[in-house]
Structures are given as structure tokens and as C-alpha cells.
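#struct-help
A.M.: can someone run this one for me? Single chain, 297 residues.
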Amino acid sequence: SGIAKELKVPLAMDDGSKKEGEEAMEIDEDAKESPRASIRSSPQRNIALSILKNQFSRRRSGIANRRHLGSHECFVRRLLLDSELQPEHGGCVNTIRWNSQGNLLVSGSDDTCLHIYNPYAGGKKQLLARLQTSHTGNIFNAIFLHHSGDRKIASCAADGEVRVTDLEKGMVSKVAEHSGMAHKVANDLESGHMLFSCGEDGVLKSTDLRSTPMQGCRTLVKLEGEEGKTVGMMSLSMNPMNSYQIAVAARDEHTRVYDRRMLRRGSNSSTSSSSSGIGDFSKPMAIYTPTEFRREK
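D.P.: on it. C-alpha cells below:
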């Protein structure tokens, strides 16, 4: 396999080591404009400042180097097709996600089915299960639920429904429903029993999976624009280091981050819109807007 080959590329040193004499060399400022720019030994050296710079460099260089090397053109050109998962879906594949162990994949498609693959098996053995979800619209997102032993999968679709498929019991339960297409689901990493979803209705919902289906669903946010029009939500993402923080992308120029501990649950009435065009039950803890789309107050 082409991917299995090791790429031996010299990495930038992140241990703070320097070549002999490198720390004591600098460009002569007075000679920079001269074509015969000289390099001279620094007559003075601030030891404390050098140590601080060295420590700061060691902390950042590891991540910086990995990001730089991972996006380098030479690495992209070396990427080869390792395998194609078989058998195929009967429609467009809209979502694919790894499990937490990195040995299984779940995919969702316009054929309203979920496929679970072992990508490391050969041929038709890759497909471990083909699941009928009872969705009546294209599946947009599917994930393995945390702390379920990869036996439960949450999915959302164009029919607005959020469903959980239990592989062990062979059951499919509708746990939440949006009034428009449901685009994204996310699961609480710490407990695994809280499921979040968003959709075209501009609503961010939370569902306690320990409750009776459809009974544990609560509305956290209803997003409205300046004129009271619904702003559809397209995606959401939970902070892996703080599961209380949820970032939401919508059909406007803003990206909002909410702290779900600060949101009033279960309300069905929106507040008046603010100057930033937000009519949520509770304001986000942060709003990010590209500079070219920022409006003057």
C-alpha cells in the first residue's frame, strides 16, 4: 500500500537545540543594504531573553511543524488511493465518520441507509452492516454515540428527524424532530447520553437519550434575524475540551459559540432582535464574523 510507506522527511528541530555558534551570530544591521553584507559575532548576549525565546519556541514548534508539513504540496502529491469501500451506497454519500477507536466507519446516503465498514478488511468483507433507518429523506449526518461500544448510531436527515439506531437491540427510535431539514448531530463526549441537533428551522435542540423517545427533547436556541426571519442552522460542533461549549454555523455571516449551561431550556418564544441580528433565547458567549461582513453600529 502506498499509504503504508513511511515518508522520511527531516522535521524541524523542536527540542531547542542549536548548531554550534548559531546563537552568537547575527546580521550586521549597518551592512544589510550593502551587497557585501557581513556576518559578525554579537558582542553582547542577553542570556535570559535567549532562554525565554527557546522555551517558547519548543512549546510551539511541534504543532506548527506538524501543521506545516501536513499541508505541504509534496505530501499531498504522495497521497494514493488505498481502497474503495464496497459495496457502494445506492445514492450520494453525504456523511462519513470514524468511531473513537479508528477501526470502523459509518456512512449515510441519499438511499436513507447507513453502512458500517471495516476499512481494513478486503473486498466485500468491508461492509459489516447495512442498516435501514426509517428516514424518508436523504441522510445528512451520522455518528457513533460515545460510550455505547459502537452499538448505537445517531443520524439526521432531510425529513427533519433525528433517529438513533441500536445495533444490539435491532431498534430504530425517533428521538427528536425539526420542522425543516436536520443537518447535523453531535454527542456529549463526557457522558454520551446528551445528543444535540440543528436544522433549517433555526433551532438547536438537546435530547437526553435516557428519557423516553421524544420526551427528553428540549429547544436550546431559536435563531432569528433582524426582521424576525428564521436563520437556518447548517452545522454544529462541540468543543472536545469543554463539552458545554457548542459552535453553530448558520445561513448568515456569523459563527456563534454557546455555553449550554447559560441557555434557557424549553422556551418557545423569541426575544426581540438585537443590533447584531440575534433573537436567541440566550445570547451566545462569542460571535465571530469575517472582517468584510462586519457592520458598523
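A.M.: thanks! The radius of gyration is 26 Å.
D.P.: also worth noting: DSSP finds two helices and 18 strands in the chain.
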